[in-house]
Amino acid sequence: MEEAFGSDHPDVAVPLNNMAEVLRLQSKNDVALPLYQRALGISEKKNGAEHHSVALVLNNLALLLMSQGKYDAALAHFRRSLDICERIFGKSHSSIATILHNMTDLLKKQGKYDEALSLSQRALAISEKTLGNHHPDMIRYFNSVADLLWIQGKCGEALCHYQQSFDISKRLLGIDHPLVLELLQKIQQLAVVNSQQGNHMGSLYYLVRIYNSLSQKNHPAARAVQQTVIGLVNRLLFL
Predict the structure, then answer these.
(1) What is the pLDDT of residues 111-147, one digit of tens each?
(2) Rounded to 5°, angle at Cα 95 from 33 and 40
(3) Distance CA 157, CA 24 (A)
(4) How far apart (Å, rounded) are the C-alpha atoms in residues 95 and 87?
(5) pTM to 2 decimal places
(6) Phi/psi class of residue 112: alpha, beta or left (left: φ > 0; alpha: ψ in -120 to 50)?
(7) Please, what sign has the CA dihedral across residues 61, 104, 85, 136?
(8) What is the largest CA-CA distance in the chain?
């Protein structure tokens, strides 16, 4: 392609970015970095600094920098990518949710949980509107919000979001998928914590709901959930 169009043609930036993405996913960051930088330079020069192709490379480059622990540089690239996409597509486009989700992961690594939760909730709201609650990507958005709520001790709200993630993943992946079983364990653990904080009925509601869905299919996990329910009921009776 470079021989046909020249080394700085806009069409050259696309395969450069794609090659860099493959290398990043293979953890070959030192090789990927100059390819991203070259793709970014070409896109900015030929398409302009506010072009959507620039936003794409910036987001990918930020992911690489984040994996290297260069959080400040990564955040700056994410913010610039977000700003470009908001100007081009508006504030409720699916690409905005993707960038916000990536920024959330970065802020979590920095321990900035309040800001991370705000961005994660915004990403979830956008995705619910653009994708609908049955899309597989909704699993990660619900999980992201739930994780942050749990970190902040908001167990009842976290349970609600994990439950929604569980319902979607169970429907799309099946009850025996590792992700679904992991969510099931999280819900049981969090329900116990939530009950210890005095929210007994909320915990029982989510656990009984899951137990009913599992017992109808005679799934072996139903017994573990049942035991958790019995334990919470006994705790409630002897308060």
Answers:
(1) 999 999 999 999 999 999 999 989 999 999 999 999 9
(2) 30
(3) 35
(4) 12
(5) 0.88
(6) beta
(7) positive
(8) 79
Residue 9's pLDDT is 56
Token output for 1: 């392609």
Report the distance separating Cα 153 and Cα 92, nearest Å: 29
For residue range 17-54, what is the model confidence (pLDDT) as tens digits?
A: 999 999 999 999 999 999 999 999 999 998 999 999 99
